[in-house]
């Protein structure tokens, strides 16, 4: 990690200038708005898309960042995969092993930002959405990973979780607890279920005949007008001209809607808490009784309720559980204010957090220097880092994010497909030997020193295969390491840039097509190093020209032999690792197939003891590296800037300690926002 205090030390001449001009500056500079001290402004390149963390839009980096600020839950996932519980929200306990049984107990201090208590109804709604047990169809997904097609008249949440798919029974509700029983053990049980969208809000929008249809056929959000409406967390109540508040009395004309307790024609306002309780109860009834008439609109509302456009148009949809609550959502970013209803152990330290996404990276650097931003996390490039280091009174922190890996295509007729070695006595062994020969020549140290170290002086070769972000993620021993289990994996140290001791597997020069998003300077630099190293080792490495590298990676395996990909953390780390490398796995893009590895993965995904998981992940990682399926390279560089100030010299502006490097590859960024909490 690079930390520099730029502008803290001045020369004698600069000091004289300050002395001579200080009084004049004090008289002529614009006064700082007193409210500015309670506001922090953050600049990022990550647009907010959705509050619904169970959807592809909600898992986009900008959405993960915003949710980490405004949402609390039972657990958070640290950068290294460690699961941390928030006792002020509740507890998650494994109460039985066979069958795996997990009990959620909600703390009395867990509240939504409109003042409504969190209840098991909120968890039951999420189970209904994520288990897939109530879906009538498996929807097709569009290019953004969202359910596509006409789903208005079917039950289709379209967000089945690899963990909750194994919990087929409707969870039991008892007071403030909800108990989930799994059909088969699930290693990710600690993070498999948490509060997401509020059941009382979703229930009202879906089941109240008086509520406007949601989502509207042609949604149009007047963001400017809505920004003037009070946020749910600012006053303890939600208000909207577009839709009834959560306390609006339902006009119960169908069996799906709860009965209204207000007298017809009465003018007295209904009790918001009672109305919220009724709508949440209606959700519980719909799930428990599998009431299709209610589940169809519930699934429709759930799919769209968290999207940025919907949140901007209806302030009730900003209802969250964290120390902050969204007040404004527009094209320039989001603003969150202190959640006055929050009663947890991590309250807000500021009155307002402004998250700007409308500035390019160099403009973010300039904005920190001009006191328009207090923190910025621009894209890390040589130009950006140079500008940040040259800026006055700015602390620069660098670090590493997702792990860049070289993955090998083992199918589709390419150079490393056993089918391409049909004349060999053992085609599979010949293909594996060729894979290892190619990977043995990959210049990992060169990639670190020449490509990443100029942007992050702490960069080093990474041996992490699993979908983690942090430096403490389980690593795999490389072929040639003293403790490698498979000494036959290769005589040369993988990644030292040397050709293998024997080239019998490649008697002639072999063409290897490398796929990468070369719009990223780091990946482009890695490709350049591969081309040169491949030439020395007897391979002709050719970059693949693809307008959509990510799409080519997934859908055109015949177009590439190896790919440089960043592997980010997943919300279900173990399930994600298995899906990526299991034979026929949902995200297995390389065609890797290994019955022995499948058995190891089966044991891993069924592991009930979290303490044992890291060792099993390391075992899987070692097997993949030894087989020549993947080679980790280095973590991608990131940079974060913090304005340097003192209360005496910068009155009216927030004074912050250096903020840690923001890692957009994390599946949960609650930990990054700790500096905004007390």
Report the sheet with the most strands, covering strand number, pairing sense and barrel closure. 11 strands, mixed
Distance between the termini: 25 Å
As a percent range, the share of helical residues equals: 25-40%
**Overall geometry:** globular
Mean of residue pLDDT values: 85
Low-confidence stretches: 5-29, 218-256, 260-266, 480-506
Strand share of the residues? 15-25%
**Total count of strands:** 17
Backbone CA Rg: 27 Å
Tally of contiguous helical segments: 18
What structural class do the secondary elements suggest?
Answer: alpha+beta
Q: How would you describe the overall organization of this protein?
A:
The protein contains 18 helices and 17 strands. The protein is α+β, with helices and mostly antiparallel strands. The strands form three sheets. Strands 1, 2, 9, 10, 11, 12, 13, 14, 15, 16 and 17 form an eleven-stranded mixed β-sheet that branches. Strands 5-6-8-7 form a four-stranded antiparallel β-sheet, with helices on one face. Strands 3-4 form a two-stranded antiparallel ribbon. The chain is globular, with a radius of gyration of 27 Å. Keywords: Signal. InterPro entries: SBP_5, SBP_5_dom. This is Peptide/nickel transport system substrate-binding protein.
